[in-house]
């Protein structure tokens, strides 16, 4: 079974969603009753190798947090990977050893792999004289050959961190990354559970393996008491003016542009993000935007819900070259692919993700020459969490761009005007669940 059950299962929304399906915002009627927890009973996954008669003779079992046995095993940080390797041999078969392994690799092509963790356990060896099964089944073992039914339980615990050693001799302790299978990036993080039967010289070995979905437990700190109260009472969020400790406010940004091609206007925008700057995938990033302008016509246009442009961006860094070694004997040669080959479309390591949705805030001053908008960026449940594994890293930021208004023209380029780094987590913070306030929509 899995490791000791948690007192309160982690609020882990990504376990409840298929990342291949579109994600919807919760409606007002479902916000209060939507509670999601990790399944308590582990699923047992069974993998078989059949003989010529169709009988399973090599069987691997694995328990995990997946909902159904036919799914890929799903393991959370701190879980034990438990199961058994079984043999059902009708005839004598030469077997030298039985081994179970868990491998973790960053893969950019069939030949370019960076192994960062490898745990290997020998379950049985013909050279061992201490195998308990021999005392129980002495007639089923003879000179390196086995027959009959055999079963070896296994327990493997993945470390929370690995020590990555680079060519220059330096090393760093890195948290195990989440399994990553992105269609936009030609680089993945894979975990495999591999059972191997070694038959000896000039005889074939046999292998059964399965992929594993590994999920680190990254949890944000709690939101401010004022924001928690808003979530509990299902009320609109209080902005930076009423809850200054609950928001990270960027310095005011002044833009100068031409309105309708006949007059110059100056606009001041101030963007605020909810603190802490760590957000659970499947939830949202709460935002406030204050816009000031002396030209009331320009102010009305630039404070409309479709004018502000704020979006989430993801950056992938992969800068390994040469031979690397990690803990537990993981070694291998790895060549960083070209940017074009890595990202598939051009050479930009930045992926432009979800845009923010905006509406007029019920709080804050929206009179005279000032308008206050409330917004949020919806985070897909299948979003890769923030990752740092030496020189392989997935990072995120929220970027503010020039407004999207045909009547307002600035000299600004397509580059962001302001950015702030954020963390994408996998577990909800302690306290009430975050509420999505924007109208239902598809996530981009």
What is the strand and helix layout of this fold?
Layout: E1 43-50, E2 56-64, E3 74-76, E4 80-94, E5 97-107, E6 113-125, H1 132-136, E7 141-142, E8 145-157, E9 161-165, E10 171-175, E11 188-198, E12 206-215, H2 225-233, E13 247-249, E14 253-259, E15 263-274, E16 278-280, E17 284-293, H3 296-302, E18 309-318, E19 321-325, E20 331-335, H4 339-343, E21 350-355, E22 357-360, E23 370-378, E24 387-389, E25 392-401, E26 408-410, E27 418-425
Parallel strand pairs: 3-12, 16-27
Antiparallel strand pairs: 1-2, 2-4, 4-8, 5-6, 5-11, 7-8, 9-10, 11-12, 13-15, 14-15, 14-26, 15-17, 17-23, 18-21, 18-25, 19-20, 22-23, 24-25, 25-27
Explain this structure to me?
The chain is 6% helix and 46% strand. The protein has 444 residues and is mainly beta. Strands 13, 14, 15, 17, 22, 23 and 26 form a seven-stranded antiparallel sheet that branches. It starts with 42 loop residues before the first strand and ends in a 19-residue tail after the last strand.
Q: How would you sum up this structure in a few lines?
A:
The chain is mostly beta strands.
Output the structural class: mainly beta
Mean pLDDT: 81
Main pleated-sheet profile: 7 strands, antiparallel
- Ends distance: 38 Å
* Rg on CA atoms, Å: 27 Å
SS field, number of helical segments: 4
Broad shape: elongated
Uncertain residue segments: 1-37, 131-136, 322-346
């Amino acid at each position: 079974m899995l490791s000791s059950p948690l007192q309160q299962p982690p609020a882990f929304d990504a376990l409840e969603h298929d990342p291949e399906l579109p994600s919807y915002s919760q409606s007002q009627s479902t916000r209060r009753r939507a509670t999601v927890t990790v399944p308590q009973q582990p699923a047992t996954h069974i993998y078989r190798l059949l003989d010529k008669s169709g009988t399973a003779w090599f069987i691997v079992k694995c328990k995990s947090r997946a909902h159904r046995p036919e799914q890929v095993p799903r393991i959370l940080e701190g879980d034990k990977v438990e199961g058994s390797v079984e043999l059902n041999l009708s005839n004598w078969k030469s077997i030298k050893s039985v081994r179970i392994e868990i491998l973790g690799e960053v893969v950019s092509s069939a030949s370019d792999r960076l192994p960062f963790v490898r745990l290997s356990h020998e379950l049985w060896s013909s050279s061992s004289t201490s195998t308990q099964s021999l005392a129980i089944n002495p007639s089923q073992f003879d000179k390196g050959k086995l027959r009959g039914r055999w079963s070896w339980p296994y327990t493997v615990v993945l470390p929370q961190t690995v020590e990555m050693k680079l060519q220059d001799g330096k090393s760093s302790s890195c948290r195990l990354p989440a399994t990553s299978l992105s269609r936009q990036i030609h680089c993945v993080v894979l975990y495999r559970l591999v059972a191997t039967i070694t038959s000896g010289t000039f005889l074939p070995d046999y292998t059964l393996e399965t992929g594993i979905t590994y999920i680190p437990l990254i949890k944000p700190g709690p939101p401010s008491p004022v924001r928690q109260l808003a979530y509990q009472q299902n009320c609109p969020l209080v902005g930076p003016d009423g809850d200054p400790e609950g928001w990270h406010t960027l310095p005011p940004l002044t833009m100068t542009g031409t309105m309708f091609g006949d007059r110059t206007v100056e606009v001041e925008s101030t963007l605020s993000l909810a603190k802490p700057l760590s957000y659970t995938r499947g939830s949202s990033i709460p935002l406030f935007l204050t816009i000031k302008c002396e030209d009331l016509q320009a102010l009305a246009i630039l404070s409309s819900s479709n004018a502000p442009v704020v979006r989430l961006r993801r950056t992938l860094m992969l800068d390994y070259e040469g031979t690397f070694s990690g803990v537990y004997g993981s070694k291998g040669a790895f060549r960083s692919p070209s940017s074009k080959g890595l990202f598939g479309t051009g050479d930009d390591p930045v992926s432009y993700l979800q845009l923010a949705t905006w509406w007029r805030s019920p709080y804050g001053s929206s009179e005279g020459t000032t308008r206050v908008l409330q917004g949020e960026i919806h985070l897909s449940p299948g979003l890769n969490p923030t990752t740092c594994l030496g020189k392989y890293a997935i990072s995120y930021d929220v970027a503010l761009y020039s407004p999207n208004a045909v009547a307002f023209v600035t000299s600004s380029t397509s580059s962001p005007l302001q950015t702030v780094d954020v963390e994408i987590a996998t577990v909800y913070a302690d306290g009430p669940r975050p509420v999505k306030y924007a109208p239902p929509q598809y996530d981009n």
